[in-house]
Design a protein that fits this description.
Rossmann fold, six-stranded antiparallel sheet, elongated, single chain, Beta-Lactamase, 16 helices, alpha+beta, 42% helix, six-stranded mixed sheet, 3 domains, 552 residues
Amino acid sequence: MQSLLQQRAHPILETSSVPNPPDNMSSESSPWAAAIVEHLPDAIFIVDEKFRIKWANKAAQQFDPHGDGLTGKRFYRDVFRDVTLLKPDYFPLTIARDQGRPARTIVRTADSRVFDLYAVRMDEGNEERKEILVVLKEITSNYRPLERLRAIHEAGRRLVDIAPGELIKLTAEERKQLLKNRVLAYLEGVLQFNVFEIRLIDFQTNKLVPFISEGMSPEAAARELTPAFEGQGITGYVAKTGVSYLCEDTRNDSLYLQGTANSRSSLTVPLIRYSSNMEPIVIGTVNIESPVPRAFTHDDRLFLEIFCRDLVTALNMLELIEVEQTEATLGVIEKLHRALAIPVNELVSKIVATEASLDPDAQGLRQALREIGKTALELKDIVHAIGRQLPPTESSPLFANKRILVVDGDESVLQDAHEHLPRWGCVVETATTGKAGLQMAVMAESEGGYDAILGAYKLPDMTGLEFFQQLKAHLKGRNVPFIMMVPIGRYLSDHQQVKARQLGAKCLVGKYPPPEGQEKGGHLALDPLKSSLAKLFAEQTRPPASAAPSGC
């Protein structure tokens, strides 16, 4: 035995001997060795080369539930027949016996306890007798959190592991449902939570909208919540502060709002994503409830926070896919819309010009021309309507379905209008001459008219001021929402813009003129235009009594 101790095979046995040792062992080296080994908390066995137990200490008796003794029993077949060998050595006793080197493995028993098993051959100079010293040290309390952490990491990886081919076949709603199913399996199977709720913040309404609810009462699941320090429960508080909250007893917590009839404790964790400059943004919450007071530990909080990071990654991935698909679809629609918009508007302009030159008695022909123009505009609107069904990238409710007429002889400006204004949510029509713009404005009156009419400072057939004056004459009694587009950086000696404002133009907005010496190639000044339109539309939505004086 002394030679075995000198090998320093295992820390527990460095100063120990074995009580009542077999013939080839002696306890004379230390009078306390027998008592020490007998009372060690670790289970110690000595087995022969056929893995039959020759001796076991007091702690090892826990594996003898029937109390009929361990001596003579086979180590695996009789005592540890239902264990699972996890890693790293899957045949530790065989390795120790045949190779003569120490072997180690992790053992899980049928009752889910976990042990560190260490085996070493006791040669003692006798090659014929290959006895093996086996030590089992319980590590359940340390191993389970690590095992749970590994399971969480693996489940989190699988949360976002969706094959590209599978994603292509799924709609946005089907992808969300797939994520929901995986989250449910994750929370129930890995984290072993049975009552929980996940809410995501709708940043347009600032409400915490239910994403997944399992086991919560119908009243709690339907409850409207917003991020707030008080009055919105623990969920609202966590969404507002971005800090996890452990409620140990729901009866003694003023923030708590009832999730189930028998909930006595809860754990709530924020879902946080980071902006491009690494600022944390709370996008939702995960709330877990239990009927047992103080059911959750800080380890549970840690594991749930890890889960939340994986969930945010999955949500980001789905959102990016949806945005990418939407952008791609919108790109096709915008190209199609731009390809149709200019030709359709030119056709309408020509129809209007032709109609104006017809004999007053040619009412049938005049009506036919109007029908052709209307059909052409409807064709363009159909394409635009398809685009409106997709989530707009730059839209706000203020711009939704606002009908705008842009009159300018510069095709580059009209192209800008067709490219950018629909992204804001507007319906755009254009004309290249003042006369065509006047006829389109008159024709649109039967359909409610335009929400805004943008006219260039100078048109091919008239000035912008003349266009506005004729608009007012044609649209009698109508508060014409006219905006004059004024070239930026150019001196305007006739001061039309001043006269237009005096006549009631809503506002002036700059546009970039064509390069010097050219008549075409200008562009819209988008930010000032968007700001001016927003002020105009906001004024239109106010009640007449409270409407502010015109001026955007």
